[in-house]
Design a protein that fits this description.
Layout: E1 2-7, H1 13-24, E2 28-30, H2 31-40, H3 44-52, H4 58-69, E3 78-81, H5 87-99, E4 106-111, H6 114-121, E5 124-127, E6 133-135, E7 154-155, H7 162-185, E8 189-193, H8 198-212
Parallel strand pairs: 1-3, 1-4, 2-3, 4-8
Antiparallel strand pairs: 5-6, 5-7
Helix pairs in contact: 1-8, 4-5, 6-7
Bound molecules: zinc ion.
Length: 216
């Protein structure tokens, strides 16, 4: 089962991917994670772009993703998060999978209103000292404004301030809308309402998966 997950920042993509990975025993492949591990292991082609703060070209991204999809752990499938980001990448992916005698089974598009996303992201706090994460709605610290682990002050990341969140959503939408169209045309895309609680979204997604993917 080869899944792609789309969803704007704060929509709960990471959480859902991890839950699905556990249920279906397939890896959650986040391009952010692959990049970090490639950089750690000294991928010089990738490092030269990242160090200069340049956008990594499609060709380099494609190569890194293809390498990780070929790994033994992806034999029974994977959940791809953060890739493809362009229709060129989507076409490359199709071809790379075809070479592996595979194809994308389903594309899940997590959807929530801008208000809901802003509400969620602006509730995030992190410890200024040890980096522990909190959420004023779902994971409150024991003492207001203070880290449970090291008693330091909690701060809001610049990224999570309402104005920045709005911009992040806009950037995401501009970037992804051609891809949403691409997969819609191929009738591979299913919209999923991501506004309920993670467990409910997960249950809905499992239903979508089981009714859309034929059992092998
Ligand atoms: Zn702390």
């Amino acid at each position: 089962m080869q899944l792609i997950i789309f969803g704007s920042p704060g929509v709960g993509k990471g959480t859902l991917s991890d839950m699905l990975a556990e249920k279906y025993k397939i890896p959650h492949i986040s391009t952010g994670d692959i990049f970090r591990s490639e950089i750690k292991s000294g991928n010089s082609e990738l490092i030269q772009y990242v160090e200069k703060g340049l956008l990594v070209p499609d060709m380099v991204v494609n190569k890194v993703v293809e390498k990780s999809l070929k790994q033994e752990s992806c034999k029974n499938g994977f959940i791809l998060d953060g890739y493809p980001r362009t229709t060129d990448q989507a076409e490359f992916l199709e071809n790379a999978l075809w070479k592996l005698k595979k194809s994308i089974s389903l594309v899940l598009n997590l959807v929530a209103s801008e208000d809901e996303i802003i509400k969620r992201l602006t509730a995030r706090r992190s410890c200024g000292r040890c980096g522990a994460l909190y959420n004023l709605v779902t994971m409150k610290p024991k003492k207001k404004g203070m880290c449970d682990k090291c008693q330091s002050a909690l701060v809001m990341r610049k990224d999570d301030e309402p104005e920045t969140v709005k911009k992040r959503i806009q950037v995401y939408q501009n970037e992804t809308s051609p891809l949403i169209e691409y997969y819609k045309k191929k009738k591979m895309l299913v919209d999923v309402d991501a506004s309920p609680k993670p467990k409910e979204v997960f249950n809905a997604v499992v239903k979508v998966i089981e009714s859309n993917i034929k059992k092998e």
